[in-house]
Each structure stands twice: as structure tokens, then as C-alpha cells.
């Protein structure tokens, strides 16, 4: 029993560390990324794209060993592929949303009233329908989630560059494409924070449904089609097999 108790306590500690990492990471994503959207002179698409992409890369580099999802769509993708349990998924999403709200509140507090306006809240272009916006958000989040799964595949030995940078660049690339369409959320929590603080809920369902579907599709496609095979010599130890139910419970 001692071994299982130790495993449970260690896993509980990992969950709390993960929750804190998700809170801090999403807070800074919204603070910095949405801060780049503030129209001091004229917001620039390249500036905004780089702000979000580099921030994501930095946060993943800092917290990737703990969690570093900072995105409910990625977290739910991990849930459907059984990388994390349901309880951990729910706690992570709540932590991400709270962090996003705090980040948006700080940004509003730091910004002069004359510049408040939308404070980076995501709204899709009035020339496209909500369903077209849904499609854009689904596909750009698919790119992000597929990148996350590809660079974090433990069975791959061909990933020579920086996984964090690859993830950040996928965010930058999709922002360069989609800002003019939907504001390029790719992240329900990133949209939720400014929406709460600025009370802007126009078409908000798009920024949950689109990214979550994209994240799930990418996760399943990589898991069942593109995942690298295990090395022939790899096998679980007896201890790992015994403790696996304990890990998956949380």
C-alpha cells in the first residue's frame, strides 16, 4: 500500500503544480497577447501574431515539464486520447479560464480608459457568417493541436529543433491567416477572459465549439494515424503497470 499512497500523493502534487502553471500561463497569454491588440496607434497583424506566438512558445518552454497546455482545446484533446483523466481536464480548464479572466482584468487596469474599447476580445468579421467563423477556428486550432501532439510524441527521434518554438510558430502562422476572419482565438480561454471583463459575447459560442472540435480531431488523427511506433525494445516496467490505474484516476 505504501507504494500506491506515495504514487497518489506525488500525482496530487503534480496536479496542483499543473493548475498553477495553467493559471499563470494563460494569465500571461491574455495579458501580453491581448495587450498587443490595444490600438495605441494602429494595431499591426504581424505584431499581434508574433506577440501570441512568442508568448505561447515562452510559456510552453517554462511549463512544458509540468503541463503547459494553456488552452482548453488542447487539454480536451489530451482527455479524448487518454493522456489525462477527466478530473484533471476539468480542473485545468477551470484554471485556464480563471487565469484568462485575471489576465484580462490586469490588462484593463493597466490600460488608459480611452483605449479600452474591446481589449482584445475576439469577434469575427461581419462579412462572414458564424458558421464560417466556426470553420476557421476549427481548422486553425487543428493545426495547433496537431503540432502539440507531433512534437511531444515520446516515440519520435527525428524532432531535432525546439518543440516550444514549433508550437509558437504554429500559433503565429495561424494568426497571420485568421486575424482578419475571426481574430484568431484558437483558444476558448483566451476568448473567455476578455469577454468576461468587457462583457462582449457576440458569437462567443464560435470560440468554444470551433477550437474544441479542432483540438479533438487533431488529437484523434495523430493518435490513430500519425503517432510514431514504439521502439521495439521499449516495455513498461512491472511497477509502471501496477501504478497506471492510480495515475489515470486523476
Number of DSSP-assigned strands: 0
The top level CATH class name: Mainly Alpha
The SS-based structural class is mainly alpha
Going by CATH, the architecture would be: Up-down Bundle
How many whole angstroms does the radius of gyration measure? 19 Å
Pattern of helices and strands: HHHHHHHHH
**How many distinct helices?**
9
What count of domains describes the coordinates? 1
Examine the coordinates and then state which fold CATH places here, giving the name of the CATH topology: Glycerol uptake facilitator protein
CATH superfamily: Glycerol uptake facilitator protein
> Would you identify the regions where 5 or more consecutive residues have pLDDT less than 50?
1-9, 234-250
Overall, the morphology is: globular
Percentage of β-strand residues: under 5%
- Cα(first) to Cα(last) distance is 18 Å
Amino acid at each position: 500500500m505504501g507504494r500506491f499512497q506515495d504514487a497518489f500523493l506525488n500525482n496530487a502534487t503534480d496536479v496542483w503544480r499543473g493548475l498553477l502553471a495553467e493559471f499563470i500561463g494563460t494569465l500571461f497569454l491574455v495579458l501580453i497577447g491581448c495587450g498587443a491588440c490595444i490600438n495605441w496607434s494602429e494595431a499591426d497583424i504581424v505584431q499581434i501574431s508574433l506577440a501570441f506566438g512568442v508568448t505561447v512558445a515562452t510559456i510552453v518552454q517554462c511549463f512544458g515539464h509540468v503541463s503547459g497546455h494553456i488552452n482548453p482545446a488542447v487539454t480536451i484533446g489530451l482527455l479524448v486520447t487518454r493522456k489525462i483523466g477527466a478530473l484533471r481536464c476539468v480542473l485545468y480548464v477551470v484554471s485556464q479560464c480563471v487565469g484568462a479572466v485575471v489576465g484580462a482584468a490586469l490588462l484593463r487596469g493597466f490600460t488608459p480608459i480611452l483605449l479600452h474599447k474591446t481589449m482584445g476580445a475576439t469577434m469575427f468579421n461581419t462579412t462572414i457568417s458564424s458558421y464560417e467563423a466556426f470553420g476557421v477556428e476549427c481548422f486553425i486550432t487543428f493545426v495547433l493541436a496537431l503540432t502539440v501532439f507531433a512534437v511531444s510524441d515520446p516515440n519520435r527521434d527525428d524532432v531535432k529543433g525546439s518543440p516550444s518554438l514549433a508550437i509558437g510558430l504554429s500559433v503565429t502562422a495561424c494568426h497571420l491567416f485568421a486575424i482578419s476572419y475571426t481574430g484568431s482565438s484558437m483558444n476558448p480561454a483566451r476568448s473567455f477572459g476578455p469577454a468576461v471583463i468587457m462583457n462582449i459575447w457576440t458569437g462567443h459560442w464560435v470560440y468554444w465549439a470551433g477550437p474544441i472540435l479542432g483540438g479533438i480531431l487533431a488529437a484523434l488523427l495523430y493518435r490513430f494515424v500519425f503517432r510514431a511506433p514504439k521502439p521495439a525494445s521499449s516495455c513498461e516496467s512491472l511497477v509502471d503497470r501496477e501504478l497506471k490505474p492510480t495515475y489515470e484516476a486523476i
